[in-house]
């Protein structure tokens, strides 16, 4: 229902208008009446109104002044003027104020009022549709990247090609041709690490999308860039076969240009590999799955660009452990130089290439051991780093990323060994002497004769982490050593370290070590 207000200083006229037609049958509700312009303004601020029917000739604030103010507050408001005057200048002013109609009171009939109201309803409907259309377009622009990502996921699961093509048009994706080419790619994670924060990954994908769109316009090729759930770039080229053109070469040139532009503007390397032509939007899902399988099988390849070569599914070795290699790396991190880290990583690379260790197992094992080094250095875990490491697509890429992280941890370890202040040494001794107790920051502060609030600020300034993280990391490092010795079960270790419940201990252990105590053991 649309809300209407009647405004007239003539009370009998308002009563007459109320009974002149059936308001409800037109979808209108008489929400308010007013006997002056001032009263109408006050009601307007208190009531949601769509239509105002007002007399022009009122004392103090006449109808024209009233509507001028109302239109300033709500431009889409519809107005019908009533008056006893027939002078032209009133009608002209009404037109200037975008009035629906200008009706003479003495000649007013139910048919005239009905016609004016229907016209007002039509204008209100059109205005509402325009507003909804503008809001839809604004939402589309604002959320287009997210909507495109959702659309790509639907392409992988929906078999209805006409439905998907129709939905794509609403997002500005006009795939009007019959054939497609597809490429899959990802940012080189180590180059992300050197230039940005891992939290910036979604922003980088958005920036890459803008670069791809600009390049598509310049090259006049229908290429659409998506990102999948793993944060990878998916380029889809829609084209019509032409014997005079080598479409694969055109797509390859586009991808090379995209790669160079991303490197130029974002300062990052990108892996990009393209497949073979296929027909129909319904072929996107199958080609995407093939590309993902190829990525996994090509983990030990070193190429960063080119056509996807169909490889046989490799026979991964799942029986080897990296404990020996990572023990050497861990010792190297504690050394005074970085040469040992580089040499140990080279030995690790040689070992996994020879053994052809399954990529997922290799990355998970590396992530686990880095967590332990972080724990040893009392360095806060970066979950975004581990997420990026687990998504690496090439061995070289993962090792370069690991190298960057280990150099950072090496520096932190050296800093701790050289600069650890007496108060921090006292804190470590106090925690060690009270391992079986659940001590708090307040306990430590009182032990050091410090105000707890001051101690909290001092501790964060000296260590870079809050006391709770430091405290749990300290205990989890000891827990790792006890689990390796295999003299105690998990319940006993939890009690020795002041954790009364095994489930709570396990949750804390997994948070800081990355795996459960049972899995670590």
TrEMBL record:
Transmembrane parts of this sequence: none
InterPro entries assigned: CheY-like_superfamily, Homeodomain-like_sf, HTH_AraC, HTH_AraC-typ_CS, Sig_transdc_resp-reg_receiver, Tscrpt_reg_AraC-type_HTH
Keyword Glycoprotein: no
Domain HTH araC/xylS-type: 425-521
Positions bearing 4-aspartylphosphate: 55
Domain called Response regulatory: residue spans: 3-120
Keywords: DNA-binding, Phosphoprotein, Transcription, Transcription regulation
PROSITE patterns: HTH_ARAC_FAMILY_1 (PS00041), HTH_ARAC_FAMILY_2 (PS01124), RESPONSE_REGULATORY (PS50110)
Signal peptide interval: none
Descriptive protein name: Response regulator
Organism (species): Paenibacillus anseongense
């Amino acid at each position: 229902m649309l809300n209407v207000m009647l405004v007239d200083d003539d009370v009998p006229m308002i009563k007459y208008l109320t009974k002149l037609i059936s308001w409800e049958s037109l979808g209108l509700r008489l929400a308010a009446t007013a006997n002056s312009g001032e009263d109408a303004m006050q009601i307007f601020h208190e009531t949601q109104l769509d239509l105002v029917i007002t007399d022009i000739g009122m004392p103090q604030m006449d109808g024209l002044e009233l509507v001028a103010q109302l239109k300033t507050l709500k431009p889409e408001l519809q107005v019908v003027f009533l008056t006893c005057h027939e002078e032209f200048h009133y009608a002209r002013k009404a037109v200037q104020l975008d009035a629906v109609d200008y009706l003479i009171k003495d000649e007013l009939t139910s048919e005239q009022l009905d016609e004016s109201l229907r016209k007002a309803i039509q204008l209100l409907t059109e205005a509402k549709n325009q507003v909804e259309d503008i809001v839809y377009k604004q939402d589309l622009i604002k959320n287009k990247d997210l909507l495109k990502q959702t659309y790509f996921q639907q392409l992988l699961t929906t078999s209805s090609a006409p439905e998907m093509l129709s939905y794509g048009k609403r997002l500005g994706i006009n795939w009007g041709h019959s054939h497609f080419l597809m490429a899959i790619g990802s940012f080189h994670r180590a180059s992300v690490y050197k230039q940005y924060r891992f939290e910036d990954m979604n922003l980088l994908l958005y920036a890459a999308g803008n670069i791809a769109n600009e390049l598509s316009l310049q090259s006049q090729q229908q290429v659409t860039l998506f990102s999948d759930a793993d944060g990878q770039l998916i380029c889809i080229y829609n084209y019509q076969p032409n014997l005079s053109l080598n479409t694969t070469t055109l797509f390859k040139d586009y991808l090379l240009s995209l790669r160079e532009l991303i490197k130029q503007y974002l300062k990052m390397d990108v892996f990009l590999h393209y497949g073979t032509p296929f027909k129909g939007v319904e072929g996107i899902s199958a080609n995407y799955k093939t590309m993902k399988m190829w990525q996994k099988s090509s983990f030990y390849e070193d190429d960063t660009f080119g056509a996807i070569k169909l490889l046989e599914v490799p026979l991964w070795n799942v029986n080897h452990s990296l404990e020996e290699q990572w023990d050497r790396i861990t010792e190297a991190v504690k050394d005074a130089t970085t040469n040992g880290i580089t040499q140990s990583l080279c030995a690790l690379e040689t070992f996994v290439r020879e053994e052809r260790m399954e990529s997922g197992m290799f990355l998970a094992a590396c992530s686990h051991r880095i967590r332990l080094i972080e724990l040893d250095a009392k360095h806060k875990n970066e979950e975004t780093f581990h997420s990026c490491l687990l998504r690496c697509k090439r061995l070289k890429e993962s090792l370069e990323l690991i190298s960057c992280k280990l150099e950072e941890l090496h520096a932190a370890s050296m800093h701790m060994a050289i600069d650890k202040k007496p108060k921090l040494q006292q804190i470590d001794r106090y925690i060690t002497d009270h391992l079986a107790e659940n001590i708090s920051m307040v306990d430590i502060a009182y032990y050091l004769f410090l105000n707890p609030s001051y101690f909290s600020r001092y501790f964060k300034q000296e260590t870079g982490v809050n006391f709770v993280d430091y405290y749990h990391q300290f205990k989890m490092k000891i827990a790792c050593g006890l689990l390796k010795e295999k003299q105690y079960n998990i319940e006993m270790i939890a009690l020795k370290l002041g954790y009364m419940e095994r489930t709570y201990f396990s949750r804390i252990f997994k948070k800081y070590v990355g795996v459960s105590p049972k899995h670590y053991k």
